[in-house]
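Inverse folding, one chain.
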């Protein structure tokens, strides 16, 4: 019985060592890549902002308490749906799928690397896109989505707060000030933001 236990302990130790010595998978490497995280953070803000702007500004949602006041009346509070917490949470469910439409772009003049959208959104027209300066990599696309999901999960409250209360410079506020994902010395990767 004792030798069986030692054998099990040895196998567990061997398995642990193999895990520690295994090469770092691409997703884990992406976690440490500041350029990827910064680019995805800014792309995420751009995607949320675009989705918010698509919503009819007249559409509202009732929030708050539905209690009846002493005089018997009920006063629900209505707010614009587009920037409501409910809408933002709905967006979070699928927003990272849009990272499939982003790729690494290398500016031919400055050699500056950034993550840019290469595919148009619904009914959106894009100017001429020079695809030869994009670096398409299926593994990178998976990494972008993974990083996006990590950012949404980790900074959900900050994203909601910024989009419900702020309208200007959300990318800088989220990606630089709140999360410090982007190095302040890095210029905006998405000039259209």
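Residues assigned per position:
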């Amino acid at each position: 019985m004792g030798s069986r236990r030692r054998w099990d302990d040895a196998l567990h130790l061997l398995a642990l060592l193999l895990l520690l010595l295994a090469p770092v998978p691409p997703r884990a490497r992406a976690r440490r890549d500041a350029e990827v995280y910064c680019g995805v953070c800014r792309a995420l803000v751009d995607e949320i902002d675009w989705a918010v702007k698509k919503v009819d500004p007249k559409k509202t949602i009732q929030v708050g308490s539905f209690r009846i006041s002493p005089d018997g009346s009920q006063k629900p509070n209505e707010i614009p749906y587009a920037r409501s917490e409910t809408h933002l949470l709905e967006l979070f469910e699928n927003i990272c799928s849009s990272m499939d439409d982003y790729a690494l772009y290398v500016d031919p003049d400055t050699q500056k690397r950034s993550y840019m959208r290469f595919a148009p959104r619904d009914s959106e027209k894009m100017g001429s896109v020079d695809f030869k300066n994009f670096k398409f990599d299926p593994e990178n696309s998976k990494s972008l989505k993974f990083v996006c999901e990590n950012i949404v999960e980790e900074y959900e409250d900050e994203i909601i707060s910024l989009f419900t209360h702020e309208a200007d410079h959300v990318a800088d506020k989220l990606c630089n000030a709140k999360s410090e994902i982007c190095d302040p010395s890095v210029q905006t990767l998405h000039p259209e933001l």
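Strands lie at 60-63, 77-80, 102-106, 113-117, 134-135. The first strand starts at residue 60 and ends at 63.
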